[in-house]
Specification:
Layout: E1 3-4, E2 6-9, E3 12-18, H1 21-30, E4 36-38, H2 47-52, E5 55-58, H3 65-73, E6 77-79, E7 85-87, E8 92-95, E9 99-102, E10 106-110, E11 115-118, H4 123-127
Parallel strand pairs: 3-4, 4-5, 5-6
Antiparallel strand pairs: 1-11, 2-6, 3-10, 7-8, 8-9, 10-11
Length: 129
């Protein structure tokens, strides 16, 4: 397990980490596999990227803009995973133990349990909890 937060919108999805709405849209246009969109501050301009994403992680709570949009779109969402540090400039996600993940690395978001898992190995297990 990479981290844990608040289960803000149910379901699970596996895919590549992206750090912007633009990157989410570009990846969705190139490949069909699911991916996770890691977003910092969100605004109405980011909704296209959220539509392109298969799951969303957000640093704030269940009533954040991203969590509300995720629930409306039926996308898994985990919020409040405060042990994970996002660096939007470097496009990195740092987990406890200083393990660093980069844009394009694969993770699984389980919006039902609030877990964020490394890789795709546990995706089916997460979807069937």
């Amino acid at each position: 397990m990479l981290g844990r937060g608040i289960a803000a919108a149910p379901g699970a999805a596996t895919g590549k980490i992206v750090f912007s709405s633009t990157a989410a849209q570009a990846l969705a246009a190139q490949v069909k596999p699911r991916f996770w969109s890691s977003v910092g501050k969100t605004s109405s301009e980011d909704v296209r990227g959220m539509h392109a994403a298969q799951a969303i992680d957000r640093a704030r709570g269940m009533t954040s803009h991203a969590a509300v949009i995720a629930r409306g779109l039926g996308l898994p969402c985990v919020t409040g995973a405060s042990s994970l540090q996002l660096d939007m400039r470097k496009k990195t996600l740092t987990a406890p133990g200083r393990r660093v993940f980069h844009e394009g690395d694969v993770i699984t978001v389980d919006g039902s349990s609030g877990e964020i898992l490394v890789g795709a190995d546990q995706a089916d297990q997460a979807r069937h909890r």
